[in-house]
Amino acid sequence: MRSANLRLSLPKRILDATPPRRIITGPRFTPVVQALPSIVPFVAPDEIERSRGQKFSVRLGANELTFGPSPRAVEAMQAAAATAWMYGDPKSHNLRQALADHHGVQPLNITVGEGIDGILCNLTHLLIGPGDKLVTTKGTYPTLNYFVAGKGGLLQTVPYGPDDRQDLPALLAKAWEVDAKVLYVVNPDNPSGSWHAEGKIESLIEGLPPGCLLLLDEAYHELGVDFDANAKVAVDDLRVLRLRTFSKAYGLAGARIGYALGAPEIIAAFDKIRNHFAISRVGQAGALAALLDQAYLHEVRERVRHARETLGSIAAQHGMRCLPSATNFVTMDCGKDGAFARLVLSELTERNVFVRMPGVPPLDRCIRVSCSSDEDLRIFSEALPGALKDAERKLGSK
Amino acid sequence: MRSANLRLSLPKRILDATPPRRIITGPRFTPVVQALPSIVPFVAPDEIERSRGQKFSVRLGANELTFGPSPRAVEAMQAAAATAWMYGDPKSHNLRQALADHHGVQPLNITVGEGIDGILCNLTHLLIGPGDKLVTTKGTYPTLNYFVAGKGGLLQTVPYGPDDRQDLPALLAKAWEVDAKVLYVVNPDNPSGSWHAEGKIESLIEGLPPGCLLLLDEAYHELGVDFDANAKVAVDDLRVLRLRTFSKAYGLAGARIGYALGAPEIIAAFDKIRNHFAISRVGQAGALAALLDQAYLHEVRERVRHARETLGSIAAQHGMRCLPSATNFVTMDCGKDGAFARLVLSELTERNVFVRMPGVPPLDRCIRVSCSSDEDLRIFSEALPGALKDAERKLGSK
């Protein structure tokens, strides 16, 4: 660039006080950002496919609803595509009104975000500053941990309980011990598939330390055993925020619509900091249509239940135990340690079957397989014995 | 809720140290968030329509591309809708590769966000902590100001120059004076429509104080007079980050795809804090198809140019002057002060014509009208004389 230097137009007092030439320096990131690691654990299936130079035969690792969303949702998105020159409504008014009717609450009890991840990001902005503490289970859904680190917060973890479920008494004790600003509970849980009944959650809320928010991630709620379509949601409690999504049971992971249900005082705070125009118009239309097609949701629940049973049978054929699941995935205990499960996963990947596994003991003895069609599960079932056998062989040769 | 209190399961040392009953308290927001105002200036056209109980006849206030996106983009989104059960690729790999080819850069020079707003949000997270300073023009695109406040940063402004353009020497002097971490320049500018030639921007970069990032918001770039489809973008400079979007010239405001072009060191920092799964799969498909249809973009440029001329003629018929525009809107000087322009705007709204106006002097003497079809502009043209007349009358009676 050979251009005149606008610096010469500066007032004399600035020119005199600063040297005319200098080394080019980059932006000054905040101290919190400077301390963040460069590597993030977000290896998407698309990325694995690119690095292997091959498409997966089945995509059973991201807990997506392979059955697809309601055909009405697809139609609504296709119609909305032609109107995509307009910004989406920053208030997501129609969707929030429909959600309010559905849950028996008011629109002011609901904020919509770019998936639950978007709400986790905003929630940490609201509550977590450098040194603030958040309590979670070691090995549960990790994206919140990433956002907490991004705000300079401190993660305090407790291990899974002996029954592979989140250990509510231990979580509560830790929250008291560290004066946590947030207690994060995933229910039903990912990656274990386990759940706690609503009564246990109510009891947890009653025991919370003062000023600690229970952040209840209910991404898989509609697929749970306790799900009741008519159950209203209590939203008058300042101690709890519930997160729901259209990415799982409603099959719209690619539309990026999650929402939070809570007291107006908490919901209103999101409007102070969120990206108001972040939600796509097409996604809003799809989510609304999906919500209104509850018959399809019930069909999905049946298909997921069937797939869970099928996966249970497949596992049993190979002497593997499945953890009880209230989600659209099944966590299969490979019967050995994490090293073995990682080999099984690697062998399945070699066979173009995309599944994932929990990253942390004790659950890392398992692989996690998403529910899908009989045909998809047949492909998984055919790949599994060879994968187990080769994993055994490689483990032995180590 | 009549449930057992899980608190009774707490270790004795915690039970003994804390009172058994207490008042329910809400979450503990960070000090920065507590200080934020509750009211945000995001009144969308949808919201105005709801509050008036009537749809607008024409939507000329949000600088959307009323001509719509490329038909190929619509087709691509419609096809992608059926695959919306899959998460979008968190790396936006295909889109970033195509953008890299288009701009003659590498994918590692590009990060994709939820519109430019999403990138503004993330950029403030990276650079602005409590007390950090950002320099901008008073009255230019305000969303960045909102995100700066959300991080506790301090805004330092300079007024528009005497020619209604951003005053580059004054901005530079202010950046030196306050040791700004970021200097924000919108080019072409919103809401004035004015622009600075690339040479001026290069000169500004050469004059920047050390460690100050020039954040160059080029949302309207493809509609500018200096636009050259073949112009490559320099991305090796640590002092500048350029923002582009599919919301304006590409007509995909509702798809929420913006991107930043810059040095790899800056681009990589976004991956430390951004919501990796925020971009919708449908939007990614639409943006890619829109980018590949450059013929349509050139058609759009011609239609926008025609509409700018038409709006100039309409204004001239009423003795109004239009500011020169390098965007898809025209800023019309109503010839009096802000009070009069606000009356004109209000009268247009009463006539179901949606336009906006700059909020800050000296530009608040103007209204801002988006380019659109001849038919839309005819409706505007028919509403304008009555609006001007009634505004004059109301101003006189004040």
Describe this protein with a few key phrases.
3-stranded antiparallel sheet; Aspartate Aminotransferase, domain 1; alpha/beta; 14 helices; 7-stranded mixed sheet; homodimer; 398 residues; globular; 12 strands; Aspartate Aminotransferase, domain 2
What does this structure look like?
Chains A, B: Its cofactor is pyridoxal 5'-phosphate. Chain A is built from 14 helices and twelve strands. Chain A has 398 residues and is of the alpha/beta class. Chain A folds into two domains: 123 residues, Aspartate Aminotransferase, domain 1 (Alpha-Beta Complex), CATH 3.90.1150; 222 residues, Type I PLP-dependent aspartate aminotransferase-like (Major domain) (Aspartate Aminotransferase, domain 2). In chain A, α7 links the parallel β3 and β4. The model of chain A has no long low-confidence stretch (mean pLDDT 94).
